[in-house]
Specification:
The chain is mainly β. It is 5% helix and 64% strand. The protein has a 5-stranded antiparallel beta sheet with strand order 1-2-3-4-5, with no helix packed on it. A hairpin with a 4-residue loop joins strand 1 and strand 2. The longest helix is centred in the middle third of the chain and has 5 residues. The radius of gyration is 20 Å and the shape is elongated. The relative contact order is 0.19.
Length: 106
């Protein structure tokens, strides 16, 4: 049976919603999570560590979107997302995404 130790992680998010008119609204969200992991205790000091050392230490994301509700059953939304990643190995990366959605409620 392998020896399993729990990893502590914690995070939070904050959001804001604004209704511009009766049929247009926007949201802004910021989220962050941090993982407490003593990589030196797990793998020993030095740089020759397994790929799992590239585990995320911090993750952040920002979401900004707007929705238009032209009629009762239809929603159209546009969203921008930016994600940021920092690993225990010191790697840092970002990603950007724009997405468009269409919803019809039956």
């Amino acid at each position: 049976i392998p020896d399993l130790d729990p990893v502590t992680a914690w995070g939070w998010h904050v959001s804001y919603h604004h209704a511009w008119t009766d049929n247009i609204a926007s949201n802004a969200v910021f989220a962050w999570v941090h993982t407490d992991l003593d990589a030196n205790a797990l793998y020993g000091p030095g740089t020759n560590r397994p790929s799992s050392f590239r585990t995320n230490e911090d993750l952040q994301s920002i979401h900004v979107n707007s929705f238009w509700y032209p009629v009762d059953q239809v929603s159209i939304g546009l969203e921008y997302i930016r994600g940021m990643r920092h690993t225990f190995a010191g790697d840092y990366a970002t990603a950007n995404k724009v997405q468009l959605g269409f919803w019809y409620s039956f």
